[in-house]
Design goal:
Radius of gyration: 20 Å
Number of strands: 0
Shape: globular
Number of domains: 1
Helix content: over 70%
Structural class: mainly alpha
Number of helices: 9
Order of helices and strands: HHHHHHHHH
Largest sheet: none
Length: 228
C-alpha cells in the first residue's frame, strides 16, 4: 500500500475510534454496553463459573453440559475464562451487527460520501472504516476479558500468572472470530442504502448459511467441521 493511502487509512480509522469513544452517541453506546456486560458478568457468568469451581451440580452432570453445547467448559483450567469464551462467541458477533452496520451506508444516506471520496480513495475509506471498527471491537473485547480476569483474581490472586497466557489467547481468538462478521457488514454497508438494510441482510445471510451448513453436516458428517 502506498504511503499516502496508508496515511489515509490510518486517519480514517482514527476518526472511527474517535466516533466510537469520544462522541455523545459513542459514549452512550459504550456506557450501555458496559452496564449490560456488568450484569452478564455479575449473574450468569459468575454463577456458572462458581458452580464449576465448587464442583456442584453441573460439573457432576457432564451430560447436561454436553446437551446444551457447553461440555467443553469442564476442560478449561480457569472456569471463568471458559464461560467467558462461550458468552463472547455469542455476544461479539451480534454486537458487530450494530457497531459495523453503518461503515459506508450512513455517509451515503447523509450525502457526505461524495465529499469524503474527493479527499481519499474509496479503498482507503473502506479499509480505514473497517480497521477503525475492528479497533473499537478489539478494545471492547480486551476490556471485557480484563474484567473477567478481575473476577478470577477476586477468587484467587495466585492465578494471576497462569491466567495471563489464557487471557491473551482468548482476546486474539475472539477478535479473529469477529473479523469475518465485521467484513461481511463492511461489504453489505458498501452495497445497500442504509444501516438498517445491512443489518437485515446480515441476519438473513447468517440464518440461511447456518441452516445450509447444519444440513450438509447432518447428511455428510465429514463436513461437520464447517460448524466451527
Amino acid at each position: 500500500m502506498p504511503p499516502s493511502k496508508f496515511k489515509q487509512v490510518l486517519l480514517i480509522s482514527q476518526f472511527e475510534l474517535k466516533r466510537g469513544f469520544a462522541t455523545r452517541k459513542g459514549l452512550l453506546s459504550v456506557v450501555t454496553f458496559g452496564v449490560v456486560w456488568y450484569f452478564i458478568m455479575l449473574y450468569p457468568l459468575r454463577f456458572v463459573a462458581d458452580l464449576l469451581v465448587q464442583g456442584k451440580g453441573l460439573q457432576h452432570d457432564s451430560s447436561f453440559l454436553d446437551f446444551i453445547g457447553f461440555g467443553s467448559l469442564q476442560l478449561w483450567p480457569i472456569p471463568e475464562f471458559g464461560v467467558y469464551w462461550q458468552f463472547a462467541l455469542l455476544i461479539f458477533p451480534m454486537l458487530s451487527i450494530t457497531v459495523a452496520a453503518d461503515q459506508t451506508s450512513a455517509d451515503r444516506e447523509r450525502g457526505t460520501l461524495r465529499f469524503i471520496v474527493l479527499r481519499s480513495s474509496r479503498d482507503s475509506l473502506f479499509f480505514g472504516r473497517f480497521a477503525g471498527v475492528m479497533a473499537v471491537q478489539t478494545l471492547l473485547i480486551g476490556a471485557t476479558a480484563i474484567s473477567v480476569l478481575g473476577l478470577v483474581l477476586y477468587r484467587d490472586v495466585s492465578l494471576f500468572i497462569p491466567a495471563m497466557p489464557d487471557l491473551a489467547v482468548i482476546i486474539v481468538n475472539v477478535t479473529l472470530a469477529v473479523l469475518p462478521f465485521t467484513a461481511m457488514m463492511a461489504a453489505l454497508s458498501a452495497k445497500v442504502k442504509s444501516a438498517r438494510q445491512a443489518t437485515l441482510w446480515a441476519i438473513l445471510i447468517w440464518t440461511f448459511l447456518a441452516g445450509i451448513i447444519s444440513g450438509l453436516a447432518y447428511y455428510l458428517p465429514v463436513l461437520d467441521v464447517l460448524n466451527i
